[in-house]
Amino acid sequence: MKKILMLSIVIMISGFSLLAQAPPSPPGDAGGSGGPVGGGGAPIGSGVVLLISLAAGYGCKKVYDFKKNNLAD
User: Fold this and answer.
1) What is the predicted pLDDT for the residue at 61?
2) Which domain holds residue 57?
């Protein structure tokens, strides 16, 4: 119980000392890196279609297995 309490206290306190990196400067700024913020023009449309189709296939397999097991009983 003491280990869990100490671990939770350490995790809560570490949030105050851990700082995130500052966002990059806008393009064209004198001291900035000039890179796009947040991935720029990365396409996500085909990835979403892929994930939805995989989820649908997994769901169909689960339904098939469920019906197959119920018919065997």
Assistant:
1) 95
2) 45-73
Q: Is residue 10 part of a domain?
A: no
Length of the chain: 73
Check residue 17 and give its pLDDT.
67
C-alpha dihedral, 63 to 64 to 69 to 73, nearest 10°: 100
Q: How many domains does the chain have?
A: 1
- Mean pLDDT across 20-25: 68
Report which of 44, 48, 45, 24 is spatially closest to residue 36, judged by C-alpha positions: 24
Extract the tokens encoding 49: 């279609």
